[in-house]
Amino acid sequence: MIELRNVSLKYGEKEILKNVSLTVRDNTIKAILGPSGVGKSTILKLMLGLIKPNSGQVIIDGTDITNMKESSLYSIRRKMGMVFQGNALFDSLTINQNLGFFLRENMNLPEAEVNKRVAEQIQFAGLEGYEDQLPESLSGGMRRRVAIGRALIFKPHMILFDEPTAGLDPVSSKKILSLISSLRHNNNLGAVIVTHIIDDVFNVADCVAVLYQGEIIFDDVTEKLHQAQHPFIRSILSDNILEL
Amino acid sequence: MPLTFIRKQDKAIVLWLKDFILTMQEFFLFSVRAFIAIPKIKRYWRDVLDQATICGTDSIPIVLVSAISIGSLLAIEVGNLLEDFGAKTMLGRSTSLSVIRELGPLLMGLMLSARYGSRNGAELGAMQISEQIDALRAFGTDPVAKLVMPRLVASLIMFLPLTALSDFAGLHSAAYLAEHYHRLDPGIFWNAVYPRLAPKDFVVGFLKAPVFAIIITLVSSFNGFSARGGTAGVGRSTIKGIVVSSGLVLIANFYVSKIVLENM
User: Fold this and answer.
1) In chain A, what residues touch B230 (CB-CB under 8 Å)?
2) ipTM of the assembly?
3) Phi, psi of B235, rounded to the nearest 5 degrees
């Protein structure tokens, strides 16, 4: 379980997050919805301990990681997989090497086990035949699937997605969303999805938190979003705007 | 009006100073982390070998070109000057001192700052911009141990033989020009070189290699890690890395010579 308790964050004079509290339970898919540049990706980086808040606490499975040393954070981070907005694949490595990179780097697994897990992810992502290609030769959707495969290869409890369908065509977006849904059903995984696309929320999320001007203005199950009274949420729902 | 202007300038200077001190603090911590990661060398020996090839073997042509050109130039110019005083036989002495103590290591440092420093800055900057460094951290790998420490160790190892190569090429090109341009007998040239070189001359020259290796690698890597603002940001951080490391190489060159020559 991931918890943010009264987290505030400033970049210089700009206040990004104001007293944000948020809980993500295991085996649930939680979306964080908000306009671009509001600090959604920052929340994911806080959850991983990549940045530290000015005040408040970040708690992962009961462990307060807010002021934890970088070296102690590595084992905590391996409980979570992260899919970055730009995929963050290593462009000089092949798909196979990208998928196996962190297993070889951080886990003392025999090479046969690494190859087995890589093959599983290749199959899961539907990338048979592309194993020896570089990321640049793949389409946006394929690269995203490699990034998801790389996040899954550690067998984490939770996956963090930063704008999983941003920049993808509708067909690729649909494939990625069904892949995310299947993760919970088949692998019992929880997920946090940061997005500015309302459609994605209704398609995959069990619950949703809406971030607006650095504050959480709604945090409940997705179905209740329609009953929310906040003018910002009303405006985006009544205007039927699909993308914020 | 003038008072407001002065107050604004004061504020700007204070902000600049604050920013400078914070950057220095970050750079210091970054450097400490790179040195602390050296015991992990066994785990990253392949990366060290890759970097040794890049900063060592691949840098040989540029080091040779700069050493040969500076050796030749010194032989011609210093030879002409000494001829006016009838002291052409001292050509070996003066060129060897200049090449081994000062110009050999300095030119090599500046060339490697441009070649290896720019490569580090651009490569690590691009990785930073595309979130690859964040990905390393997110999946439990220390990016300084994985990316910076191998560069530091490789340069510490490879800059020494590169300095020796630079000295060798510089001296031999000077000897060649002395013989063919100034018509100086090679025996006279080399006789003025070897017996007169003292250990401190080699200490000055070879001590500069690890100092330059540390400056070039850490400054360029730190600037790569600090890249912000897309491809333009990568360009800015790369340039900053080269400018700062070249400046520091020049300053360090002076101080290493001064300290060693005054104390030996």
Assistant:
1) none
2) 0.85
3) -60, -45
Say what the pLDDT of residue A242 is.
46
Q: Is B96 exposed, middle or buried (0-12, 13-18, 19+ CB in 10 A)?
A: buried
Which band of pLDDT confidence, cut at 50, 70 and 90, is reported for residue A244?
Answer: low
Determine contact, residues B224/B125, Cβ cutoff 8 Å. Answer: yes
Instruction: Residue count of chain A, please give it.
Output: 244
Question: Does pTM surpass 0.90?
Answer: no
Return d(Cα B71, Cα A147) in angstroms, integer: 53
What CA–CA distance (Å, rounded) separates B175 from A18?
72
Within chain B, residue ranges assigned H as helices are 2-36, 45-55, 60-84, 91-97, 104-112, 118-129, 132-138, 143, 149-180, 186-191, 199-225, 230-263
Q: Which two tokens stand for residue A84?
A: 């970055």
Percentage of chain A surpassing pLDDT 90? 44
The 10s digit of each residue's pLDDT in B81-121 is 988 888 888 888 889 989 998 888 999 999 999 999 999 99
Nearest-10 crossing angle of helices A140-152, A170-187: 20
| A88/B135 Cβ within 8 A | yes
Mean pLDDT, rounded, for B210-219: 96
Residue at token pair 């790389």: A150
Q: Does B138 contact A86 at a Cβ distance shorter than 8 Å?
A: no
Please indicate if any CB of chain B lies within 8 Å of the CB of A45: yes
What's the CA gap between A168 and A84, in Å, rounded?
14
Q: pLDDT over 90 for what percent of chain B?
A: 66
User: pLDDT tens digits for A65-89?
Assistant: 998 988 888 888 888 999 998 899 9
| CB within 8 Å: B141 and A154 | no
**Which positions in chain A touch B130 (Cβ < 8 Å)?**
86, 88, 91
